[in-house]
Amino acid sequence: MARKVDITEKLSFEENPSLVIKGKELEVNTDAPTMLKVMNLTLDGGPGVKEIMGAYEMIFPQASRDVIEKELKLDFKDLIVVVQEAISLAIGDEDEQPGEQ
Predict the structure, then answer these.
(1) Whole-angstrom Cα distance, residue 2 to residue 82?
(2) What mean pLDDT comes out for the span 32-39?
(3) % of the chain residues with pLDDT over 70
(4) Using H for helix, E for strand and C for coil, what is the string for the chain?
(5) Which of 55, 57, 60 is nearest to 24 (CA)?
(6) For a Cys-Cys bond, which of 3, 20, 41, 58 suits 51, CB 3.0-4.6 Å?
(7) Which pLDDT tens digit goes with each residue over 49-90?
């Protein structure tokens, strides 16, 4: 019989984290398949506009993108900051940032 190992206790099944901008909570998709795709986009020779927009569409669910686009109306520079922060949050950048809860 093949060996079986239950690793459930070693895994985290937490909900997706959120970024907060102007009091609006933006959910960040942190599931492994999404993050592997995002990381692959950002590693291919450095991210360009196409890669940043691809990461943006993958990492933020539609509800979060609606808030960003319709309510926050960020300029492109600020959108890049939001995407970078979301990626840092998703990959578990352990350095605690100001404003972190």
Answers:
(1) 46
(2) 88
(3) 88
(4) CCCCCCCHHHCCCCCCCEEEECCEEEECCCCHHHHHHHHHHHHCCCCCHHHHHHHHHHHCCHHHHHHHHHHHCCCHHHHHHHHHHHHHHHCCCCCCCCCCC
(5) 60
(6) 41
(7) 888 888 899 999 999 999 999 999 999 899 999 998 998 898
Of 44, 54, 48, 38, residue with least CA distance to 90: 38
Contacts by residues 43-47 (CB-CB < 8 Å, ≥ 24 positions apart): none
Cα 31–chain centre separation: 9
Single out the residue of 24, 13, 9 nearest to residue 73, CA to CA: 24
Crossing angle (nearest 10°) for helices 32-43 and 76-90: 130
pTM, two decimals, is 0.77
